[in-house]
Amino acid sequence: MNRMIFIAVFATVLFRWAQSWRRVVGVTLIATLTAGMVFPPPVYAQFGIIGAIQNILNIINGAIRNVLNTIGAVSQSLQALHQQIIWPVQLVNRARSSIASVIAQFRGVMQSIYVAPVSSATLPTTATLEGIIRNRQTNDFPALTQSYYQAFGALPAPDQADPLARNMIDIDDGLTLATLKTLKATDQVGDLTLESGNQLEDDARSAAPGSAPFLSASAMAANIQSQAMMQKMLAAMLRQEAARIAHENAVRKRDVILAVKAKQTMSDFLKRR
Hints:
0% strand
């Protein structure tokens, strides 16, 4: 009651001073705040707020705490199940140690065998050709062709060999160069396969439990790629073998043709005699 009387008196005094609606709103706010400071609310309201807060705290410390404790117990049980039954920590660490031991034992040895120097040519021309063949690159095929013809000779001119001989030389050179190019590509893929294998070993050493199927899928994909290159190299070998057989047959055919020509030449010579 006192608060209302104070607000009315205070507003009446200030309204006479206020001349615009903005001042009226400001005067009303000032009167309300002043009344709140001069005449504070009853104490029982404060105790009611404190009691409500206490009830909320009791609920949090009671039912909600029990639920949280239950959830924590279930989480701990699931964690223990995974660490002891599904993915035992000791076995996982043992597997990682085994992988690390295998890597340390074999990776360096296999790498040294793979990069062991086996070049044997001594002459400059043939040594250059051998170096190009073994450099595991696929962007220098023109240099391979040039070095090959420098080492083994170019195709004879038409006035230097009969057509059948030139055909055999040309197809032999072509298939040989094709096989050498396939070999260089296979060597390059071999390097990539080794890198993939090393990466898979490193991932297996630090992989999380449950990721084995993903590592297995990656290994299978790398294996399929390697098998594809092996099939390509096998096809090149079969083509080379077919060319060798065709060359031998062509030599026999050429011998027959030369024998017939020689017989005809001898017959013509005897007739002139």
